[in-house]
């Protein structure tokens, strides 16, 4: 493989890129594509809601269905790469992602869009683990791998924030459909270059834990559905508890399946360490709170502050910049000086403070003081917290379980985002209905009333997310109290 990297070129000529460099570009482009799609729809939500006539609670499913299928099938996707070959799975999943993106861009109904988003999530779940495996194959341990993983981490961390900006640009200058169509040329480039530069990893024997993947994905999906739909019309409807009961049964079945499976997608031994369990829980709370607030914030800046989708996307630029700088510059400098536990606690505290500041929005909110500064605090705090959370999630894992531990980190990331959004939407819905009952009918116009409700929704969302962050802080302080200090992974 060393000879492959050092000598092989795509074509003769002094100025051509080595195959390993081009392969890294292909891998990073794929990772950026699937990560961006987790947030790129946010700025498009107000226009999409009007075009497809969606209720605000149902609108959350445009995000959640992608996050749930991505997180739920990711470990099965990693196993598929081991058994079928990572190069083959990478290319097939990239092709499926392009097709699903095209279908979503052409969707004429909410059901067509949600089906396409679900297929996108499944395709991403198979592409992302194989992309990382191919990167590890291309670059053996040493300085080259450190540089490659640094770039991969920056793309993964900054891609979510960049998606918020890109979504606003595409929605304002083209259409919300181009938020999905943009994947077509990127995917086509991957499929054209991938077969020419990506190596094939040796295949391993194994079994597919399909039932484990299905039960955990269906169980979490029904849990999210039950939370979002529990109070749709001001009162719980008969039979609404059915999806919540079914979710509990499926998640219980998942645990039983994992205990008996020959090659489980999630070895339950990973939860034996309180440090790792705390890291998984903290990550779910952190990502869940962030994405839930973004769901309301992107609508608030467009419908209340009356910014264009383009300017709404730019509103998240401070988040992208501060998070990127913290991951690439701040964490490497602070981690040796503070240690992972202190850096993690400080990051969660800064992020919680940013959310508290964001909860004070009103009708007379100014962009810089009331929005930009809290958003910058969120970027700094999350950037500082994600690296030690990742390190804690793989600490002390046996080599045979390293892949599963890495996959579980990503699974908790995306499932946590969907579940956090569902919980916050549920809390916001209850708060809005309680406020409506307390104030009774008002003489305000429907437009003013809608703006007041959305402002209150963002305030409640940010307050709830701040509580998530504080709970995450308490969990990591307790679970990591007696563990060895976290160092850079």
From TrEMBL:
Localization per Swiss-Prot or TrEMBL: Cell membrane
Keyword Chaperone set for record: no
Residues annotated as transmembrane: 21-45, 65-82, 89-107, 119-139, 151-170, 176-194, 206-228, 240-257, 278-297, 309-331, 343-363, 375-399, 411-436, 456-478
Top-level division of the source organism's lineage: Bacteria
Gene Ontology CC, one term: plasma membrane
Membrane topology designation: Multi-pass membrane protein
One Pfam assignment: MFS_1
Molecular function terms from GO: transmembrane transporter activity
UniProt keyword Membrane, yes or no: yes
Keywords tagged on the record: Cell membrane, Membrane, Transmembrane, Transmembrane helix, Transport
InterPro entries (alphabetical): MFS, MFS_dom, MFS_trans_sf
Sequence ranges assigned to domain Major facilitator superfamily (MFS) profile in this UniProt record: 23-484
Name this polypeptide is given: MFS-type transporter EfpA
Protein species of origin: Paraburkholderia domus
């Amino acid at each position: 493989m060393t000879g492959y990297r050092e000598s092989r070129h795509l074509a003769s000529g002094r100025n051509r890129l080595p195959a390993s460099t081009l392969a890294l570009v292909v891998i990073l482009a794929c990772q950026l594509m699937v990560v961006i799609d987790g947030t790129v729809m946010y700025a498009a939500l107000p226009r999409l809601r009007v075009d497809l006539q969606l209720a605000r609670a149902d609108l959350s499913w445009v995000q959640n269905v992608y996050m749930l299928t991505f997180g739920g099938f990711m470990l099965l996707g990693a196993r598929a790469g081991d058994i079928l070959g990572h190069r083959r799975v990478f290319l097939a999943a990239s092709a499926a992602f392009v097709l699903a993106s095209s279908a979503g861009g052409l969707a004429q109904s909410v059901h067509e869009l949600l089906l396409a988003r679900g297929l996108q999530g499944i395709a991403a779940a198979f592409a992302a683990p194989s992309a990382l495996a191919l990167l590890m194959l291309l670059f053996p341990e040493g300085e080259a791998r450190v540089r490659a993983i640094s770039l991969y981490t920056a793309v993964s961390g900054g891609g979510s924030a960049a998606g918020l900006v890109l979504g606003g640009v595409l929605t304002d200058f083209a259409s919300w459909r181009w938020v999905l169509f943009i994947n077509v040329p990127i995917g086509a480039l991957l499929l054209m270059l991938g077969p020419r530069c990506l190596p094939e990893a040796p295949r391993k024997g194994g079994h597919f834990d399909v039932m484990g993947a299905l039960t955990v994905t269906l169980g979490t999906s029904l849990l999210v559905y039950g939370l979002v739909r529990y109070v749709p019309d001001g009162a719980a409807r008969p039979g609404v508890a059915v999806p919540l009961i079914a979710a509990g049964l499926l998640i219980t079945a998942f645990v039983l399946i994992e205990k008996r499976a020959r090659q489980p997608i999630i070895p339950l031994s990973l939860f034996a360490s309180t440090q790792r369990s705390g890291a998984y829980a903290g990550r779910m709370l952190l990502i869940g709170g962030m994405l839930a607030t973004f769901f309301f914030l992107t609508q608030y800046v467009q419908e209340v502050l009356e910014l264009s989708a383009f300017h709404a996307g730019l509103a998240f630029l401070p988040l992208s910049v501060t998070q990127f700088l913290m991951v690439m510059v701040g964490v490497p400098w602070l981690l040796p000086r503070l240690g992972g536990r202190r850096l993690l606690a400080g990051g969660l505290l800064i992020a919680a403070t940013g959310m508290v500041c964001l909860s004070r929005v009103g009708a007379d909110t100014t962009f810089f003081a009331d929005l930009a500064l809290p958003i910058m605090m969120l970027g700094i705090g999350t950037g500082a917290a994600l690296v030690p959370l990742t390190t804690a999630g793989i600490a002390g894992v046996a080599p045979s379980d390293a892949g599963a531990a890495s996959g579980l980190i990503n699974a908790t990331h995306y499932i946590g985002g969907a579940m956090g959004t569902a919980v916050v939407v549920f809390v916001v819905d209850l708060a809005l209905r309680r406020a409506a009952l307390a104030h009774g009918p008002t003489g305000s116009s429907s437009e003013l009333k809608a703006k007041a409700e959305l402002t209150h929704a963002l305030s409640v969302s940010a307050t709830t997310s701040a509580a998530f962050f504080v709970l995450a802080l308490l969990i990591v302080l307790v679970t990591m109290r007696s563990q060895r200090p976290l160092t850079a992974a």
